[in-house]
Amino acid sequence: MDLKNTVSIEGELVHWADFLNVRMFKDVDLDAIESLLRACPLVDLSAGETLISPGQTKNAMYLLLSGRLRIHLESVDAKPIAVFNPGESVGELSVIDQKPASTFVIADQASRLLVVPEEIFWALIDASPRIARNLLFTLADRLRGSNAQMSESNRLQQQYSRQATVDELTGLHNRRWFDDMLKRQTMRSSMGGETLSLLLINVDHFSGYNDEFGRAAGEHALYGVAQTMMNNLRPTDLLARYGGQEFIALLADTSIAGAKLVAERLREAIAEAMIVMSDQSILPPVTVSIGVTEMKPFGTGEMLMTDVRAALDRAKENGCNCLAE
Fold first, then answer.
1. What's the pLDDT score for residue 259?
2. Do β-strands 12-15 and 104-107 pair in parallel, antiparallel, or remain unpaired?
3. How many C-beta neighbours within 10 Å does residue 106 have?
4. What ranges in the chain are assigned the alpha helix state H?
5. Residues 90/51, Cβ–Cβ less than 8 Å
6. Which residues are CB-contacts of 198 (< 8 A; sequence separation ≥ 6)?
7. How large is the angle between the packed helices 118-127 and 30-38, nearest 10 degrees?
8. What is the mean pLDDT of the chain?
9. Rg (Cα) of the chain, in Å, rounded?
10. DSSP state of 12
11. CB distance 86 to 67 below 8 Å
12. pLDDT score of 99 more than 90
């Protein structure tokens, strides 16, 4: 076929080459469907003009002959989820399932489209198995792309969720996460009549350590304290950085006597752990003061926090590097 040939649609000449670029017509004998194409109207859109909006039922497929379209989900001001170039189609899914559109389709620049009404759409499918095949390939590619976008969205959600609950410096969970877990654990322990103890750990004289050795040394010290505690607690114990130089540990099924043993083990291990800098230089260890408390019958997370904070204050008053209940 001579690509210079044209077909008259609504009195306007359209090059056959424009149709040969349409993905749906790949390997299709256009002569066999020429009469159907002549029955399809043309539509011209200016840049920014809306072709389809969510909720609309157009009952037509649109073949992009020139220009560019962009697809938006919730708002035309949002970042487009896809951009369509000449040769691609939109609207076919609504023709197939008879459901309203779910996206905005906007002309990104001046665009010309061939409008394929529902009855001609099905006539094209009946006229050429290749058109049906090409349509299946198009829908499969879009489904695969949608799945990839969903996978990436889930990955980002998990990443943001982790960032919202994990302390960047130490890798421990943060206060937001711990406060939520404390409510759950205290309720569970109260209902089950189980023991529950809490440790509040504060690095002694941390400001002075920063002043003497520098901020980087202080950060390495906090990281070292976190690692030491993780190595000396059970996997079932809940540990978090509670803010600044303060850490907190929730010990399930642990009485005050058991919690004091754990606290003393942590205190000793931290006091013996040298601080290793990035250049492998060694700085002296820090010490910690620890408040220890056990949840009273029918107690709440707020009551537990009040008690452990008072216990930590007593440890500080006793000279630091010790524990108190």
1. 95
2. unpaired
3. 21
4. 16-20, 30-38, 92-97, 118-127, 129-165, 175-192, 206-213, 215-231, 256-272, 301-317
5. yes
6. 248, 249, 250, 251, 259, 292, 293, 294, 295, 304, 305, 307, 308
7. 170
8. 85
9. 34
10. E
11. yes
12. no
CB 3 within 8 A of CB 20: yes
Does residue 10 carry a pLDDT above 70?
Answer: no
In sequence order, which ranges of 27-128 are alpha helices (DSSP H)?
30-38, 92-97, 118-127
Q: At what angle do helices 215-231 and 206-213 cross, to 10 degrees?
A: 130
Give the model confidence (pLDDT) of 210-229 as tens digits.
999 999 999 999 999 999 99
Q: If you search the block for the tokens 């190595």, which residue do you land on?
A: 231
What gap in Å lies between CA 310 and CA 205, rounded to an integer? 18
**Amino acid residing at 296:** K
Residue 172 near residue 241 (C-beta atoms within 8 A): yes
Q: Residue range 304-323: average pLDDT?
A: 94
Segment 105-124 mean pLDDT: 91
Distance between CA 113 and CA 105 in Å, rounded? 12
Strands 69-72, 104-107: pairing kind: antiparallel
CA atoms within 13 Å, Cβ hemisphere of 281 = 6
Q: Which residue has the tokens 């559109």?
A: 101
The CB density around residue 315, as the number of other CB atoms within 10 Å, is: 25
DSSP assigned state of 73:
S
pLDDT digits (tens, 9 = 90+) for 152-169: 555 545 555 455 788 888
Backbone angles phi, psi at 163, to 5 degrees: -60, -30
> Domains in the chain and their CATH numbers?
6-156 (2.60.120.10), 175-324 (3.30.70.270)
Nearest to 177 by CA among 242, 226, 237: 242
